Every structure is written in C-alpha cells, then in structure tokens.
Amino acid sequence: MLTAIVMLDVDAARIPEVAAAITEVPGVSEVYSVTGEVDLIAMVRVRKHDELADVIADRLSKVDGVLHTQTYIAFRAYSKHDLEEAFALGIED
Questions:
Q1: What does the pLDDT read at residue 90?
Q2: Cα→Cα distances 49→15, 45, 75, Å
Q3: What is the pLDDT of residues 30-48, one digit of tens each?
Q4: DSSP states of 27-66 as a string?
C-alpha cells in the first residue's frame, strides 16, 4: 500500500464543500481541515504507484475550489498505536 499526504490550498469560502468533494475521490481515505499554511490535508492510499497520478493529478487537483496541491509520498509509517496493537497479546491488565 502506498500512502501520500497531500496539502491543499483551497478557496477559503468553500472549504467544507471542497473537503466533502475530495472525500468522494476513490483512493482518498481521510481529509482534514487544518490550521497553518494550507487549508486541507488529504491522505491518499493506493496499491500501485501509477494510481497516485490518477488520484492526485487527474482527480484531486481538479476538484472545483482546489487552488494548489503539494504531495508528500510516505516511505514508512511509524505509529505508537499500530505498534501497541501488533504486540498486544489480548491479555487484560
């Protein structure tokens, strides 16, 4: 599974509508409205590298209201939550 983190600048007056439209794009797993230099962050998860272009360049960046995107492709995921689940033996404390 490939994961890309996409930072989106969008029309500020349309953030909720743009976020809702982005959640409908196949391959987008989550969309976050955030503070800071960007308006939205979308998590894209696909099986093949070629699918990233389909989702991000061909679909996500063309959603009406999206002004600019910047994409970061994840190499590895580190999560305390995932590690705890992986090593849990199911024994209650």
A1: 56
A2: 28, 10, 12
A3: 999 999 999 999 999 999 9
A4: TEEEEEE-SSS-SEEEEEEESSHHHHIIIIITTGGGSTTE
Q: Quick one: tokens of 4?
A: 């890309």
- Cα Rg, the chain, nearest whole Å: 16
- Could you report the average pLDDT of every consecutive run of 10 residues in the chain (93 residues)? 96 97 97 97 95 95 97 88 58 53
CATH 3.30.70.920 corresponds to the domain 2-87: yes
Contact 61, 13 (CB under 8 A): no
- Count of all residues that appear for the chain in the document: 93
d(CA 72, CA 93): 39
Domain ranges in the chain?
Answer: 2-87
- Torsions phi, psi of 82, nearest 5? -65, -40
- C-alpha distance from residue 91 to each of 80, 83, 85, 88 (Å): 18, 16, 12, 8
